[in-house]
Amino acid sequence: MRRLALTFLVMLTTALPAQAWEQRMVPVTVDGETVRLSTIVYRPAADGPFPTLVFLHGSTGYGGDSERFAWVQEFAAVARYFVARGWAVVLPSRRGRGGSEGLYDEGFRNPRALGYSCDPAQSLPGAERGLRDVASTMDAIREWPIVDRQRIVIGGVSRGGILATLYAGTHPDSVVGVINYVGGWAGSCAHAQSMRRTLFRRAAAYPGTMLWLYSDGDENYTLDQIRDALTQFREDGGMADYHDDFVPAVGHALSSHPNLWHGPVDQYLANLGLPHIAAFAEDTPLVPQVDTPADEFVGRWMGAWFGVAQTVLTVRSVEADGTADIVYFFRGGNSFLKGTIADGVLRLHGGTNKVRFFHMPDGLLRGEVEGADGGFGTAMLTKRE
Length: 385
Fold this sequence. Notes:
alpha/beta
């Protein structure tokens, strides 16, 4: 039977050509050592320089699973929103994360296998280490020809969100805006609130207004905790346009739902005089349109699927009749599904959940989940030999 190549239809207007995707190993010197940090770059396939969003990843759950350190967080929903508006989006991975060289060491207990520490004496130096990674990376990114250094916004999710605010507070002339998605530190452990207040107090030195986006139902930070930290931030002179009334409440997954946050982000960018109107279709693929070989791939979703932090997923042969055999391990059991393919989108459960797959030149099959009933995240699957 003839195999079906899994591709995507590129829907463009005449305003901008297709988007470009690139993964770079960026050399930086931090803490006296030279390391290469794995960095994903999304941008319009047009001449720059572009206004640029540098977007920072979060943690790895509780930090106890070292296998998760290697996974790349691609934030496709955020990238698609900004690239559609003519921005470059740069996603650096800090030391020891997402393919970057060096040791990942943002405040671990001893032994490290126990995961992140709640002791401020260990955890806060981890935040400082992460900040040094960010500062070194920003110095390198600012010199790229595609980057308009006068129009750089920094943002991030979770640990990345609070690190974005901290960078702005300690490098106040380096960025024109800050977008903090559900930012925080150390989850809900005993000393987490005092540590969040400590870090946000330093962020308050930023002279501009930040955008803070939070949602109810967050398993890491309650809205009462964040509002308390916001009060402290404002008392220390910080300025933030704050939103937490998103419906439906999606908790820590907020960044994956641009349908909820595009209004506040549009307005924030407009207030800064930055591009905020889409120039072409926002569901345009973010990666090169490459035929996907019809074969078996295996890997893990990183993100959540109905509350599961990572799900093992196998994609088997894709047939010409528009179906694919799917196997995934969910809450300790196996599920076997027939997926339906239409226009390059593989739909699961026959409902609103869908998985977009992109075959990359490096031989990996990348995917992203979009689901109204709980699924989100990204995946990298490797061809099974």
